[in-house]
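Section 3.1: Structural characterization of target chains.
Under the original work plan, the team committed to producing a structural model for every single-chain target entering the pipeline before any wet-lab resources were allocated. The record below documents one such target. The sequence was received from the expression subgroup and is listed exactly as submitted; it comprises 375 residues.
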Amino acid sequence: MAKLKFGLVGGGHGAFIGQVHRMAAELDGLAELVCGAFSAEPNRSRSAGMDIYHLPAARAYSSFSAMFAAEQQLPIGQRMDFVVIATPNHMHFPVAEEALRTGFHVMCDKPVTFSLEQALLLQKLIQHSGLSFGLTHNYTGYAMVREARELVRSGVLGAIRRVNCEYLQGWLARAEPQNKQAQWRTDPARAGVAGCFGDIGSHAENLVSFVTGLDIESLCADLSAFVDGRELDDDGNVLMRFRGGAKGVISASQIALGKENDLRLQIYGSAAALEWQQADANSLVVRFADKPAVVHRAGGIGTSATAMAATRLPAGHPEGYLEAFAQLYKDFCLTLRGDKSAGDFPTIVDGVRGMRFIEQVVASSNAGGQWLPFG
């Protein structure tokens, strides 16, 4: 079958994530970038399309509205099939809304929108459109993260009692006035009500939900902005109570000096516990009370079919961030093709829950760490 065609909004000069989306979407040979609108400034958008992404001038558009209008007029087989949104948070909703209105499927960076109100409205638009919507919480694409979920589902851990998830970075430990990525992530007008917890705390919440399947019942948060003059949080901790009695904590920081992308998950049950960390993403450690620990390896003997479906190389060949990111695109593209072998990927349901988490975390912290209901 012919490759699916996609357009990209965002990812222009000085951006990081646009090229990641492009590489991930194209890794499995299921899709190809054919057009884009890469900046809010028309000339920079066109130049980025030609200079960075090597697109023909006619498909490097001056704006996303111009792209949707032009692509809609092209015959099927030439026009894009879906759009990738890789902009700052405040632009996610308007781009997604116009994409759905003009008939294009959407793959969006997280968090899904600028606010919970927008997320709920977007959910209605998606349901009405009948189009597919994916959200790139890419850590759910790791083979051993999917293996962890299978172990939880199969009952190996017993009843879950405690969940710890930690995501530590240090790149915002000081003010970075010339850094484009830092500028918008610390700007409430573009990032939303949360900084660190909107950026990486949302990933931690999604990872916990994906693996455990637990629903948060209530939470208590303590956020801080350690860098002078910073308006949004750059560090925080959240206590969680889950339905069914489990307890949990999420710690996220962007001022943890020396930390790069230290993401780790620990789940403790009544029968066993598991540990996964991105620094050794191909390993999943399962611990028991009465026998030695077992290490599950990506592509290794005894790995579940779900994890194997997210593994491209023989065991011992490291697969990492890009491959995990690509797994979401693989599942998304297979879904668009109607292929029943497609795995699941984060959707608007995850996006709405993630925005509710972000806003309740901020509300709790602003209330002095008050316990608030979730939902």
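The longest strand covers residues 160-168.
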